[in-house]
Amino acid sequence: MAGRPTLAAVAAAAGVSPSTASLAFSGSSRVAPHTRDRVLAAAQRLGYPGPDPVAASLRRGRTGVIGAFIGERLLYAFRDPHAITLLDGISEVLGAHGAGLLLLAGDAGRPSAEQIARLPLDAAVFATCGLEDDPAIPLLRRRGVPLVGVEGPVGTDVLIDIDDFGGSRELARHVHDLGHRRVEVIAMPLRLDGTTGPVSGARRARTHYRDVRRRLAGVEDVFGSVPIHETASNSVADGLAAGRAVLGVPAERRPTAVIAQSDVLAAGVLQAAAELGLRVPEDVSITGFDGADLHWLGDTRLTTVEQPTAEKGRAAARAAMALVAGDRPQDVLLPISLRIGTTTGPAPRGANGHR
Amino acid sequence: MAGRPTLAAVAAAAGVSPSTASLAFSGSSRVAPHTRDRVLAAAQRLGYPGPDPVAASLRRGRTGVIGAFIGERLLYAFRDPHAITLLDGISEVLGAHGAGLLLLAGDAGRPSAEQIARLPLDAAVFATCGLEDDPAIPLLRRRGVPLVGVEGPVGTDVLIDIDDFGGSRELARHVHDLGHRRVEVIAMPLRLDGTTGPVSGARRARTHYRDVRRRLAGVEDVFGSVPIHETASNSVADGLAAGRAVLGVPAERRPTAVIAQSDVLAAGVLQAAAELGLRVPEDVSITGFDGADLHWLGDTRLTTVEQPTAEKGRAAARAAMALVAGDRPQDVLLPISLRIGTTTGPAPRGANGHR
DNA sequence: AGCGAGTGTCGAATCGATTCGATGGGGAGG
DNA sequence: CCTCCCCATCGAATCGATTCGACACTCGCT
Fold it and tell me: Scanning every residue of chain B, which has its alpha carbon at the shortest distance from the alpha carbon of A267?
């Protein structure tokens, strides 16, 4: 009688069997109100805090915990409003189901195998990491953990997706229609190795992230091969650095439009343009992707591809809950739309000469 | 033999007892290398993914999951770089220990009691919610879950704290020394009821958040009673709204200095000042609190009180791990320091008349 | 009064691993 | 050659609840 009271102790105190006590706590209608009250009173008296979640999980086979993988370290991932909104959507649905959200981030890139093996999970969502062959996937798969992928990884049970290619192409066409011919793409990391700068064809071909690859393809579908500048991570700071590199060149070599692969990167490029005294969109057009809420931009409205980020999160969470329940939910393809803002305009005259 | 293989099945296949197989997986030195290899080979052969975490948790009495309470909904909490940095610090330490971070947010303000009762937790950190008497605290306490508080809640086992009062007072003194006499505070929510606008004495006295209260007291220690404008949440948007209200009045009633209770709010006030054509710091001085990394401010360096946010998170996580291990860690008081930036300057002449 | 239906409670098996104390065998020392 | 000790392995209890099928009792109907 040293430790915390158990359900058995409560049952004994209430003069019922453990099974009845359990029924009383689970709110089953098969127990008489009178009996339930007696059990609850006994629990109150003994200071019993309710059934032990771990024991219940073992027996039930479900823990009520859904894991969310974020490719990077928390600090970096959450600099991105898009990632936060996505996670908020997930959290919203999970909360409504009484489930918990377990964050899986890594010190050095991703959660350790040990961590994955030791944590109780009913299902996992690959949220902000489009790594196509994340090593965690087979690990979890072997453990029988249902997997939901968001816009990226392969080998999951369900995929929540958007038309990256189509959206990117539509955006590129808009830029093309404005007369731009010298464009440059500022890309999110193509692989997880910290490389930055101009991207060679070989590296381009070995792009590790599906969303990155598809967005590139959309642009290339319109412009053909375009110069790509890779960033170390998807952040304003890296967008700024890339923007400086791409825009800080003699005017005749400077692109007239910069297509950033995310709004966060675009925000950095906007900063770089401001630093260099370039007017947007008169001197240079800048586009993003995501339709994130960049509150600090003030009046500037970024031309971007808007995706229903929160809904993407919700859909992912719903799919995860469905998988846990044993259903086989459908893949989801969410609509996206071009949003034309104030950061794109006609290409400057005479700027479209040779390159 | 239908479901996933169990440790017992592996043991049988390897020709050893379950206990030995368990030892082999836990990496105990008490098992012969030869035997371990045999067990591991059998596991490989059967596709055994390693010991079930839930069963292990039940037996061990520990789940390896630490909960983090964030007062608000994810979306709002993570708009604040300070909150993210704090959580990153927590995540860093937990990751190093192979523990997981379970996010506890709420649709409507906080996690439901049901959720708290059902989730497996070894300990919990009250991270970004300074609510002094959060109803979750007694709930968890009854369940025997060790609690760590960050700068706020009472009734936890360990408190990770900073000197809000001292820091705020030092900041206020700096403002006072610059000659400002007409100052106004823009406060984070005093209570969780969505009220905004000027704060009455009665409401001031019923401040629910400890950090808010202490920061107020620091200012009042220097300036005496000052007008307070309460915001609906700690966000740039609400800071902007408050800034408009406070600064958008005739110059003779306008404060010469605005003391915002967080950097995020201050960022909003800066925006409001810009909108109203007020120069900072010539026309109005603006201060923040936290020392967050507001990358979008460009050259503007906010005068603020800098706190070691990441270290606060790490300290909280270390305390949580220590509590789980059965230790009784000490409370932690972290140092803070005034950081004078470019947003404070001498009070405009002749502005300090009657109010 | 007898029978069937329905309701409330109970027993016992089960979820899957961990761990302590016991046991057996082999090697070293006398 | 015998004994003592140590090390690797094993048995069995345990963690705390859930759940299925069985059982007893009551009520209603004929």
Answer: B296
* Cα–Cα separations (whole angstroms), residue B53 to A137, B30, B60: 17, 22, 10
pLDDT tens for the 355 residues of chain A, in order: 447 899 999 999 999 999 999 999 988 778 888 999 999 999 999 999 999 999 999 999 999 999 998 877 888 888 888 999 999 999 999 988 889 999 988 655 456 677 788 899 999 998 876 566 677 888 888 899 999 999 877 778 999 999 999 999 999 999 999 999 999 999 999 987 889 999 999 999 999 888 999 999 999 999 999 999 999 988 899 999 999 999 999 999 999 999 999 999 999 999 999 999 999 999 999 999 999 888 777 788 999 999 999 999 999 999 999 999 999 999 999 999 999 999 999 999 865 544 4
The whole-angstrom distance between A29's CA and the closest CA on chain B is 18
**How many Å separate Cα A109 from the centre of its chain?**
15
Please provide the CATH number assigned to the domain covering A65-162+308-337: 3.40.50.2300
Residue A355 is classified by DSSP as -
Question: Which residues does chain A have within 8 Å of residue B104's beta carbon, measured at their own beta carbons?
Answer: 100
Are B119 and A4 within 8 A, CB to CB?
Answer: no
Count of residues making up chain A: 355
Q: Does domain B7-51 have CATH number 1.10.260.40?
A: yes
CA of B7 to C1' of D4 (A): 36
- Fold classified for A164-306: Rossmann fold (3.40.50)
Question: Which residues from chain A sit within 8 angstroms of residue B103, using beta carbons?
Answer: 91, 100-103
Q: Are A319 and A332 in contact (CB under 8 A)?
A: yes
CATH of domain B164-307: 3.40.50.2300
CA end-to-end span of chain B: 83
